[in-house]
Design brief:
The protein has helices at 4-18, 117-121, 130-145; strands at 26-37, 42-53, 60-68, 71-74, 78-80, 85-89, 97-101, 106-109. By secondary structure, it is of the alpha+beta class. A hairpin with a 2-residue loop joins strand 3 (60-68) and strand 4. The protein is globular and about 40 Å long.
Amino acid sequence: MVSKEQMKAAIHAAFDSVVADGASYTKVYAAEIKQKNYLVFRTTTVSNFAVGFKPGRTDLVVVPLEEKNGTVTAGTPLTITDANRASVKKRDLQGRFVIKTTDGQTFRLSIIPSVTKLLAAAYQLPVEQKAEYEAFTALRDSLTAA
């Protein structure tokens, strides 16, 4: 089992590998959990993301992540700016941060200061990110106030 510090370092390294000047961003781990209920069974899909931002700016970079045995691989980054951001909600009914783009993409992100072992067992990546979470909540509040 990978430690929270090792996982956080792997997430940051994956983000930095696909985003130009990635080291200058504050990065926070986010998960998007989708559940579908059927008559006989329920499916749950968990998508992992690294969200990068610079304090004092309103741009976000969302990078999809794949994790396997402690190795984190980054997908194609999506930069969300004032120009392509359609809407932002501080919280939906499940307490998630919701951001929509003008091209129709929607992210419903759960971002928490610390992913516990119980949540890590439910497919979220184990991460400790209290300082990054505080910086993100300041950005989130500035985006939803506008």
